[in-house]
Amino acid sequence: MLDFKKNISIARFFAYILLAVIGMIFFISGCIFLIDPYHIWRKKALGGINAIRLEVPHFSQKGAALLNSVLHTPEVLILGSSRVRRGFNETLATRLYGAKVQVTGIDALSLSAAKDLFFTISKKTHLKKLYLEVNYMTSNDCKASDDAQTGEKNRAYQFYQFYQFSPRDAAMQSVETLRVNLFGLRGFDKYVDQQGRYHDDPSGAASRAKNMEKEEINYNGFFQETASHCKYNPGNAADIQDLTDIFKLAQANNTEVVLLLLPAATTWQARIRKAGLASTIAQWNINVSQLAMQFHATLLDYEQRNDFPATAQAMPLFWDDTHFSNRIGDHLLADMLIR
């Protein structure tokens, strides 16, 4: 009889542990849903707990983009690298275009990865229009030669990358989102405000000027690493194939495609000239433009534009060598609409 009671007590003990774990899972899930750190479940801020949003962590960016497209079924997709994410205000774009616009910017998004992401989103929703950033530096011609060994071309790896949506990352992002909304921003936080505007450095221009030398070293190393993989072949067959696949799927789905060459700071353009890449990039852009014409697509070239009008926004034109601010992005959104 004593052994029977003992067994019951042990079973009850483990049942309590199981219930506690289940309760904790539901509690954490509820907090993530309430705080909505990836701006997926709702498009309006909830009180003072998520008015300011931090950037989505790299490993959750594709998963968040796909879930966003499923829940909100965009009519217009602006797809590209972190330059798209930081430069274009999704709230403003939706208002200007009179349609649901999804701005998706994935860190260093390659052309082949952009194709895969467009194909996946197209299965979930019908897109009326696709704005796609094209950039020689993220093309197949500048892809590291050991990509196959690292798994980038492996289907299992692609599935993992596209559908990874880590609960751990979501929980940590929720905590960080709650922290900045309750206790304020730190000097190095990169965030999006309640109006959808991206901010790189809350401490302002003085801090950026102070860190200019450090940023110069970082960007010089970043450029050298990227350029070292480039093969100086503007007619790369893989680039042509990826774009052709995108155009064909778009035509089959009756999706209008507009390619974007986005602006970069003069310092970045100087690095390109110094590396001897200027003529290769110019020819690559021409090849892309000619291919787009064959499929009746449009290419908008803003790459070396510097005639952007002054605005009342207290932010620089560029946050760094490659990332333009909403001062430029807002102007581009309006221009893209009428082109």
What would you note in describing this structure?
There is one protein chain. This protein has helices spanning 2-35, 61-72, 82-87, 90-97, 111-124, 147-150, 155-163, 167-183, 205-210, 212-227, 237-252, 266-274, 278-294, 326-338; strands at 53-54, 76-80, 101-105, 129-133, 191-192, 198-199, 256-261, 298-301. It is globular and about 75 Å long. The longest helix is centred in the first third of the chain and has 34 residues, at 2-35. With 339 residues, it is of the alpha/beta class.
Q: Per DSSP, what share of the residues sits in E-state strands of 2 or more residues?
A: 5-15%
Distance between the termini: 85 Å
Number of strands: 8
Main sheet properties: 5 strands, parallel
Would you identify the regions where 5 or more consecutive residues have pLDDT less than 50? 146-163
Q: Overall 3D geometry? A: globular
The number of helices is: 14
Spatial sequence of strands, sheet with the most strands: 3-2-4-7-8
Portion in helices: 40-55%
Helices, strands, pairings?
Elements: H1 2-35, E1 53-54, H2 61-72, E2 76-80, H3 82-87, H4 90-97, E3 101-105, H5 111-124, E4 129-133, H6 147-150, H7 155-163, H8 167-183, E5 191-192, E6 198-199, H9 205-210, H10 212-227, H11 237-252, E7 256-261, H12 266-274, H13 278-294, E8 298-301, H14 326-338
Parallel strand pairs: 2-3, 2-4, 4-7, 7-8
Antiparallel strand pairs: 1-5, 5-6
